[in-house]
Design a protein that fits this description.
Shape: globular
Structural class: mainly beta
Oligomer: single chain
Helix content: under 10%
Mean pLDDT: 93
Radius of gyration: 14 Å
Largest sheet: 7 strands, mixed
Length: 122
Amino acid sequence: VQLQASGGGVVQPGGSLRLSCADSGRASGDTFSTYYMGWFRQAPGKGREFVAIINWGGSSILYTDSVRGRFTISRDNAKNTLYLQMNRLKSEDTAIYYCAARRGPAGQFDYWGQGTQVTVSS
């Protein structure tokens, strides 16, 4: 698994952004659709925070409370891509956003993307 996050930028409060995370890795037996995928973020001076997670087929999704109702995680297994649609952005959403992958419903995330900066500012 090789993850590449993109789509970050500068947006005003109340605006929207869509992040993407493409998987370009293809080891033997290694397919994007076999991984749980998640989004995390790290704000300046703070630790890494869980944002959302989605299971293999998209039927099970969890969000952290602060983004529920504003953010939507989704995936397109045919395109090997994970998404995070972020609406009604707030200044406190400013952070570096990372995508990550793990094989099962529990445990550590084994693979991480390089991060994409999201800045919400007027």
